[in-house]
Specification:
Rossmann fold, alpha/beta, 2 domains, binds flavin-adenine dinucleotide, 9-stranded mixed beta sheet, 8 helices
Length: about 300
């Protein structure tokens, strides 16, 4: 049976958004049946995976175990013989996709943001070096493709339904890797990946005490605060607010960048925002290359005027 197999990712008892992004993409490709492999008790929630016609239930532990999950994914591939296997480009995905492609002896395409079927092959676009370089590879199926999160709309794959469930049975592994503990990030903070409007501050804010101005603006706009990495490194903002390569990838409807230069590592995390407004005193700052609207002004002058207007 040809088609697409989606390797579902889950965390803390729910499917991750990237699972639905991959399911939506898999359906849109129209290259045969879409199946999904779900691990442990997540297979009981097959009704959430209605974008797939079959859910393969892998008898694994609920806690991620790279050895076990990679073996289960391999067994699912052998059962479904798909043209394409989609795996999340995440820490967990790396541990599944690499052994999967290596043991099956099939190609692996990493950092993929888009796939087009073309004459029995797939044209995959990958975003490399923090988004500085786009690479197109044509790969014949079967292949493993690792999808970057945020490249597709999760809602396209978030379809309720009643896919058939096929049991893969227990997975046999040498048991060399054991799950010990999930260390959760600090709770109680905002999830900026879900924010509609973000006011993001960079080193141009000057000092910790000056953040107040941006917070005032964010309050008036009903926005959440985000930041570039140096502010987290300085201990001025929590890590959960960092946007970029080593932070969060955000897609708000409005992203206001205050005193952010626009380093590639920052751009990578916010370039998909619907509207970007940049305020930077340096008119040559690279942030203006991705901004829809830009002001080469002192951020404090602009914030002051905006706050006055909004009040
Ligand atoms: C492996 C790796 C991973 C990284 N991950 C990330 C990441 O996830 N996120 C991230 O952000 N960075 C990341 N970085 C760091 C990144 O390379 C940059 O150093 C960082 O993004 C710069 O932050 P910034 O724009 O706030 O500071 P700067 O580059 O120092 O820019 C400050 C800007 O503020 C402007 N400015 C100064 N005063 C004012 C004023 N009064 N009004 C208006 N504008 C003013 C200046 O003109 C300047 O453009 C990473 C780096 C590496 C090597």
């Amino acid at each position: 049976m040809a088609g697409v197999l989606v390797v579902c990712e889950h965390l803390s008892g729910g499917f991750a958004d990237i699972t639905f992004e991959m399911l939506g993409l898999a359906s849109s490709l129209q290259v045969g049946e879409v199946s999904a492999v779900a691990f442990g008790s997540m297979a009981d929630r097959s009704g959430e995976l209605g974008a797939a016609s079959t859910v393969i239930s892998a008898g694994c532990s609920d806690d991620f175990n790279p050895e076990e999950y990679a073996a289960a994914a391999k067994s699912a591939v052998e059962t479904t013989s798909p043209d394409l296997v989609l795996v999340a480009s995440t820490s967990m995905g790396y541990d599944i996709a690499n052994p999967l492609a290596a043991t099956l002896g099939i190609p692996l395409i990493a950092y993929c943001t888009g796939i087009e079927p073309e004459e029995g092959a797939f044209v995959c676009t990958s975003s490399l070096y923090g988004g500085k370089m786009g690479v197109t590879s044509t790969v014949p199926g079967p292949a493993v493709v690792m999808m970057l999160s945020g490249a597709h709309n999760a809602d396209d794959g978030r379809i309720e339904g009643s896919p058939g469930v096929s049991d893969l049975g227990a997975v046999d592994t040498p048991g060399r890797v054991r799950f010990k503990q999930l260390i959760e990030p600090d709770q109680g903070d905002v999830d900026i990946t879900q924010s509609g409007v973000l006011v993001a501050i960079g080193r141009g804010i000057g000092g910790k005490d000056d953040i107040e101005v941006a917070e005032e603006l964010a309050d008036l706009l009903d926005a959440d605060m985000a930041c570039s990495r140096p502010l987290v490194d300085a201990g001025w903002m929590p890590k959960s607010r960092q946007v970029g390569k080593s932070g969060m990838r955000v897609k708000p409807s409005l992203y206001i960048a205050l005193g952010i230069s626009g380093a590639p590592e920052h751009i990578e995390g916010m370039k998909d925002s619907a509207t970007i407004i940049a305020i930077n005193s340096d008119e040559n700052a690279p942030i203006f290359d991705v901004a829809d609207y830009g002001m080469a002004e002192d951020l404090f002058d602009v914030c002051e005027e905006l706050i006055e207007e909004l009040e």
